[in-house]
Structure formats: structure tokens, C-alpha cells
Structure to design on (165 residues):
């Protein structure tokens, strides 16, 4: 399976000043569950924000300027090369394109599924998820999570599955 995975707000914000502009305990649980044992593909800035390969996953970084090489971690020059590398080096594993905006913009055109955490808040930011045609996908809300804290927004784990004719 070729998928993308993202968390965005009601105004589609994914980042601000190189970081994710919210901290909601537990919100990244689904990311960890889905990606562990599989492949994550991310842009150079997103990788540098994390600062190390994500454990238990094959990490592919997309960059034209830097190289990151380690056990279970390699760098390639394009998204298509990332997909080829995943198929060669981690055959049979699911591929999760994990940001940022440029990779999402490319990937939204062809991924089978989009695993989206929809944060129920408007939050200011400088990087957004691209517009996409929701008619092309079946939208399923897998879970609604209330944080139970008045200053922390609730969120939905949503799966968008591409409709095939
Ligand atoms: N909310 C979420 O789910 C989520 C997920 C991921 C990231 N984020 C946030 O998003 C922000 C980072 O995203 P971003 O869009 O600014 O940066 P990014 O996509 O993480 O990194 C951009 C860099 O990746 C490389 N790159 C991307 N596409 C490429 C391509 N097709 N070919 C070659 N290189 C390519 C380039 O690296 P070089 O400059 O080295 O060539 C580019 O400068 C941060 O704020 C982060 O916290 C949020």
C-alpha cells in the first residue's frame, strides 16, 4: 500500500516555523501504530525537525542538498526514487509519505489512502496541506477523540480511500 499520513487543522495547517504548532498528548499514536514495521518517506526539513531515524521503520529522506545514511535510513533525490527505493530495500512493506507540503502535494495525486488526523481547531501556521478533490476519495471517520482538557482540541482519525472505477 502506498499512503500518506498527516495531521492538519480545520484551516489545513501542518506546520509553523519548522515545527508542528500543537502538542496534544496521544495524538501521534496512530502515526506510530501504522508506520511501525513499514516505510516512512519525508522531506529534509521534516527529518531535520525529528533529528534521527524513526525507530522500527525504514526511513527515506528526500533531499537535493543533504545526505543522511544510517541503518534503516537513506536519502534519495525525488519522491519517485523514494518509492523505488522502498520497493527494492523494503519489499512488501507499506509506504507512508509523511510530509512536508511538497511531498504531500505530489503524493495526493496517486496514493491509495490518506490517513489524516483532523484537529478540530484553527491554528496559525506557515505550511499547509494542499487542496485536494474530496470527491475522489471515500472518507471514513475511524475514531473521534476528546482530549478531556478544555484548552486542547478534540481530533478525528480519518481515512480517505481513493475510489477506483
Ligand atoms: N502535521 C503533520 O502531519 C506534519 C508532517 C510533516 C511535517 N510537518 C511540518 O511541516 C513543516 C516542514 O515541511 P516543509 O514542506 O517545509 O518541508 P519538507 O517537505 O519536510 O522538506 C522540504 C525539503 O525536502 C526536500 N524535498 C522535498 N520534496 C522534494 C523533491 N520532490 N525533490 C527533492 N527534494 C525534495 C528539499 O530538501 P533540500 O532543500 O535539501 O533539497 C526541500 O527543501 C514543518 O513545520 C513540520 O513540522 C507536519
Amino acid at each position: 500500500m502506498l499512503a500518506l499520513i498527516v495531521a492538519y487543522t480545520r484551516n489545513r495547517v501542518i506546520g509553523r516555523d519548522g515545527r508542528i504548532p500543537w502538542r496534544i498528548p496521544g495524538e501521534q499514536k496512530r502515526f506510530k501504530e501504522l508506520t511501525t514495521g513499514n516505510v516512512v518517506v519525508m522531506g529534509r526539513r521534516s527529518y531535520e525537525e525529528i533529528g534521527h531515524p524513526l525507530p522500527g521503520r525504514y526511513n527515506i529522506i528526500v533531499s537535493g542538498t543533504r545526505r543522511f545514511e544510517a541503518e534503516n535510513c537513506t536519502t534519495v533525490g525525488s519522491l519517485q526514487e523514494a518509492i523505488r527505493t522502498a520497493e527494492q530495500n523494503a519489499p512488501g512493506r507499506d509506504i507512508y509519505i509523511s510530509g512536508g507540503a511538497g511531498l504531500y502535494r505530489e503524493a495526493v495525486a496517486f496514493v491509495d489512502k490518506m490517513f489524516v488526523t483532523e484537529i478540530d481547531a484553527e491554528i496559525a501556521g506557515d505550511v499547509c496541506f494542499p487542496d485536494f478533490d474530496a470527491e475522489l476519495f471515500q472518507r471514513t471517520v475511524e475514531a473521534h477523540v476528546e482530549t478531556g482538557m478544555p484548552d486542547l482540541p478534540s481530533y478525528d482519525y480519518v481515512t480517505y480511500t481513493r475510489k477506483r472505477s
In short: The chain has one domain: 2-162. Residues 2-162 form a domain with the Dihydrofolate Reductase, subunit A fold (CATH 3.40.430.10).
